[in-house]
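re: that chain from earlier
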Amino acid sequence: MTEIRIEGRCDARFEPVRNAFAANFAKHDELGAAVAVTVDGREVVNLWGGYADEARRRPWQHDTLVNAFSVGKGITALCLLVLVDRGLVDLDLPVSYYWPEFSEGDKDFITVRQVLSHQAGLPAVREALAADAMFDWDFMTGALARTRPWWKPGTRHGYHINTFGFLVGEIVRRVSGASIGTFLREELAGPLAADFHIGVAPEDDARVAEFVWLPELAEVPRIDPARLTEDELMVFQSYFNPAGASGHGTVNRVEWRRAEYPSTNGHGTALGVARLYDIVAAGGTLKGRNLIGHDVVAEACREHSSGIDAVLGRPSRFGLGFQLTLPEKPVIPSPSAVLHFGAGGALGFADPDAGIGFGYVMNRMGPRYNNPTNRNLIRAVYASL
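^ sequence. v structure.
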């Protein structure tokens, strides 16, 4: 295989990160990727390499955008936390206070806090949805408003894979009057020059990398929903209702890029991800801007739900919109770290103790957890401190 040229800059102290990034191409079949690290608000790593397409005709550039999937959940949560800090949203008020239609289906008392910590019982819409329904914001939020919870809210937690962004984003829209993509651009990404988008503008299409699925993950399972238990149906609907909701066969379509689909279709550069997660690392004040109050950031970083995840079927921990590392097998060697993985191994995290903001994006599907590419980079970052 032709040796991949690594572009960008890296402080000498963080040379282990450059080495680990290069090794991911040499040893782990990386196609195209970028990694960025900030420390105390200062950019210390911004590297990219490889190709933006499977045919290897488009070199990855400094401004290549790629779908980072659920990395955007933490960024979506930041938007709502801005409104919490401004006193416009109360974490412990019912969602229906801000979104009256949400009270349908025994949901009068689901709180904003429960939505942010994956305790709302709404990981999937119950009604069968037509293909591409996820591209229609009003339809999806209306369907969620009609959905009866899959469990009594607050009694369990389960990863809201593709619904989290609609739930959080609609609260943001009801309170601020702006769509989640517009709010992100105007209140956070724009002021921080963070190249991350929920809804890609037409003028940015040429920058978007093709995302390559592993063949074994490319097919939606053929399952008769009528033969499933309630919990099995919940899990199936979480991933596959509507078809293509998780990116299968849809991620490279222009409709996917254009939609505001906050749980799943955030597109950005690694540096854009690092700069947004750096808000948390800095305690809410970054580059002289008080973006989110320190107390709100601290509340978002503490554990709100943990144990066996009703959707994933394994242990998980959440703060407010962020994943927390599991003590028995920590992904990041810092108890203060908050993070969010994306499908294929993309990752954004913040470590307030070390002042680190981190972003890693790539365009070939791999495992979320136990992924050698992101694990190698994390180890290299901490070895450099």
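The longest strand covers residues 42-50.
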